[in-house]
Design a protein that fits this description.
256 residues; alpha/beta; ten-stranded mixed sheet; 10 strands; 36% strand
């Protein structure tokens, strides 16, 4: 499978340390750094996981954002997150319109609404490729009509519920945390079919779990052409990811 990932990227930095006392100047912990870890995040995390799933993958992104998390290494409790350069430059339109979209089995849009893609860019991609998967933080309306599959979390779904429930006729996949995910497909009058998570998993870190789910959903759908099998696999991969520290690439040997 050949896939294009396009969207907002970032650098995720995890600064781990010890907190053994409170500051005498203010009621805050004194943080002593011990180690750090960095990964590509957002669209870059989707890309890395698709590669791990065996996809021949290209990416178009701007990764100028840095998110630094200060984490107590004993409890894995995040104490502070610092975001630098929270807005990105938009994609060059000449680059976008020059892409041979026909070479790809799927286009994956990872849109954190940081400026790399606007609604016209997404509308162009969806109108010119039959299999566009999208995860977006934007308010959704008619510009998303032609998107093949919208993946969205439950909070974002409730914000866009009226349009998704009555006007969008392709696949909608709503992640439900530890309850799994549900999907709708109005073309066949399929509504709110739940694919549950069957095993309990200890949650250590939720960072990047949505990106993991998206990558797994796309990879398995391209393999099986079955939305329920794709969601089940995505549930398993994201459930494993939250048991790890920080942003991780899925180890397929650990997915049952």
């Amino acid at each position: 499978m050949k896939v294009l990932v396009i969207g907002d990227g970032c650098k995720d930095v995890f600064q781990y340390g010890k907190c053994e006392r409170l500051s005498p100047e203010a009621p805050v912990p004194v943080f002593k750094p011990t180690k750090d870890k960095s990964n590509g995040g957002m669209a870059m995390n989707v890309y890395a996981n698709l590669v791990a799933f065996g996809a021949d993958c290209d990416i178009l992104t701007d990764s100028g954002i840095t998110k630094t998390r200060y984490v107590d290494e004993t409890s894995n409790q995040m104490l502070l997150r610092v975001d630098e350069n929270d807005e990105l430059n938009g994609i060059n339109s000449d680059v976008l319109y020059s892409i041979d979209l026909s070479q790809y089995d799927a286009i994956v849009i990872s849109d954190y609404d940081k400026g790399y893609l606007d609604t016209e860019d997404i509308e162009y991609l969806a109108k010119n490729h039959r299999r566009v998967f999208m995860d977006t933080k934007k308010k959704i309306s008619t510009w998303a009509d032609k998107v093949f599959c919208i993946k969205i979390n439950n909070k974002e779904y409730l914000r866009n519920k009226h349009w998704l429930d009555y006007m969008f006729y392709n696949f909608v996949v709503v992640t439900l945390g530890d309850k799994g995910a549900k999907y709708s497909y109005l073309k066949t009058n399929t509504k709110d079919q739940v694919v549950s998570i069957t095993e309990d998993h200890p949650v250590r870190d939720l960072t990047g779990a949505g990106d993991t789910f998206m990558a797994a959903l796309v990879a398995k759908y391209l393999e099986k052409n079955n939305i329920e099998e794709a969601i089940d696999f995505a549930n398993k991969c994201s459930s494993w990811a939250v048991t790890q520290k920080g942003v991780v690439v899925v180890d397929l040997a650990k997915i049952k």
